[in-house]
Design brief:
It is a single chain. The protein is α/β, with parallel strands linked by helices. It has one domain: Alpha-Beta Barrel (TIM Barrel), CATH 3.20.20.70. The chain has helices at 7-17, 20-27, 34-44, 89-100, 114-120, 134-146, 165-170, 180-187, 190-199, 217-225, 234-243, 256-265, 286-297, 312-320, 330-339, 341-363, 368-372, 394-399; strands at residues 47-48, 63-65, 68-70, 74-76, 105-107, 125-128, 151-155, 247-253, 269-272, 303-306, 325-328, 376-377. Helix 1 (7-17) crosses helix 15 (330-339). Mean pLDDT is 92; it is low at 383-401. It binds ligand FNR.
Length: 401
């Protein structure tokens, strides 16, 4: 491979390739970007205690989840407007995930339609935003089912959009209305600009059907602005549970009591996530919140995590603290911008798989089940934790002899 060995290197290459407003849309977070920084930093505080002299056992990081078999315990998080990283990003990443035997999640706000992804990457997951118009929500669910999707991820952490300061400063909005600064930015990034000119500006492909006759980019953008989940509550989620026959996974959970209640409601899994630091800036890092969530739901409910995963050892850390699977958002966009989506996505899967394999070997863990038994030091507690029986810290179980 020629040179890009880390996500940081892919990020640098993406920064060079993309105009500033597009890079900042992908790379940025909300508010002071504290949650964004914390997501990565918190992984470094998690220590795993290796076992030695375990011999040269073969490693198998595969797992079964939501009725499907995956070769790897990580996949692609839902990403709106992904084709800002380059035309064909949704499709290329879906193919890269399929090649790697890993899940790909298509966003409601994707730039490629449910039906197109289903043809190219059967087995992909669909992420639902519960927007203001209920007829659209029901139709999106029905379209996903008709197209053969089996796993629905409902995102619940956008009751109001996060304040993304970089986008405000750059004047980034949809449809793109180039300011003089943006025009200069485009001239400085001719490769990206030519791709846009040849393939058209990214559009909300899943929502075009609802824009009405002759709907332009503007009304679709307005439609998307109404996709935050302000009206979503427990009763509405229960309705969605009744309508969707496949696996229902709820994304954007940090409080253990919410996770426990979701399990009672009939959710098939939760994604511990703060939306990659793009929503509440004072939210804990997902890796900090994970142990209490796992303790609250018990060992059987699938718990996924995303936010701040930047190397294979982070995946090992998340599994050791109770995650079944992790998802990555920005890293796949950096890879797509740097190398083209299918190739870059493939390289990223290979880098992370290799790093995870090295970590498992050094820890003496040959399977994910063994990885879960590794001794973990994680300086994570919430004040509420000891007071409630369902908030037992998972560390006590893990460090017991
Ligand atoms: C996102 N995320 C997101 N989540 C979601 O449920 N629906 C969506 O449409 C989007 N769109 C989106 C766009 C961009 C550019 C980013 C960076 C993120 C959040 C995403 O699924 C995931 O939670 C985070 O990206 C995880 O953090 P990392 O891996 O980026 O650190």
């Amino acid at each position: 491979m020629t040179g890009l060995h880390t996500i940081e290197a892919m990020r640098d290459a993406a920064r060079r390739r993309l105009p500033r407003f597009a890079f900042d849309f992908v790379d940025g977070g909300s508010g002071a970007e504290s949650a964004l920084a914390r997501n990565c930093a918190a992984f470094e505080a998690v220590r795993l205690l290796p076992r030695v002299l375990t011999g040269a056992v073969a490693r198998d990081p595969s797992l079964e989840l939501f009725g499907a078999k995956y070769a790897l315990p990580f996949g692609v998080a839902p990403i709106g407007l992904a084709n800002l990283a380059g035309s064909g990003t949704d499709l290329g990443l879906a193919q890269a995930a399929l090649d790697a035997g890993a899940p790909y999640t298509l966003s409601t706000a994707a730039t490629t339609s449910i039906e197109t992804i289903a043809r190219t990457a059967p087995g992909a997951w669909f992420q639902l935003y519960v927007g203001a118009d209920h007829a659209i929500v029901e139709d999106l669910i029905d379209r996903a089912e008709a197209a053969g999707f089996k796993t629905l991820i409902v995102t619940v952490d956008v009751p109001a959009p996060g304040k993304r300061v970089r986008d405000l400063v750059n004047g980034f909005s949809l449809p793109l209305r180039p300011t003089p600064a943006m025009a200069l930015d485009l001239l400085a990034h001719p490769g990206w600009a030519l791709d846009l000119a040849a393939n058209g500006a990214p559009r909300f492909a899943n929502l075009e059907a609802y824009g009405g006759k002759g709907a332009g980019a503007q009304s679709l953008a307005k439609l998307m602005a109404g996709q935050s989940s302000a009206r979503l509550d427990w009763a509405l989620l229960a309705d969605i549970r009744r309508r969707w026959k496949g696996a229902l996974v709820v994304k954007g959970v940090l409080h253990p009591q919410d996770a426990a209640r979701l399990a009672e409601l009939g959710a098939d899994g939760v994604v511990v996530s703060n939306h990659g630091g793009r929503q509440l800036d004072s939210a804990p890092a997902p890796i900090e919140a994970l142990p209490a969530v796992r303790a609250a739901v018990g060992p059987r409910l699938p718990v996924l995590l995303d936010g701040g995963v930047r190397r294979g050892e982070d995946i090992a850390r998340a599994v050791a603290l109770g995650a079944d699977m992790v998802l990555l958002g920005r890293p796949f966009l950096y890879a797509a911008a740097a190398r083209g989506a299918r190739r870059g996505g493939g390289e990223l899967f290979a880098i992370l798989a290799d790093e995870l394999d090295r970590a498992m070997t050094q820890l003496g863990a040959s399977t994910l089940a063994e990885l879960r038994q590794v001794e973990v030091f994680a300086p994570t507690t919430f004040n509420a934790a000891p007071a409630r029986p369902d908030l037992r810290a998972v560390e006590s179980r893990r460090t017991a002899p």
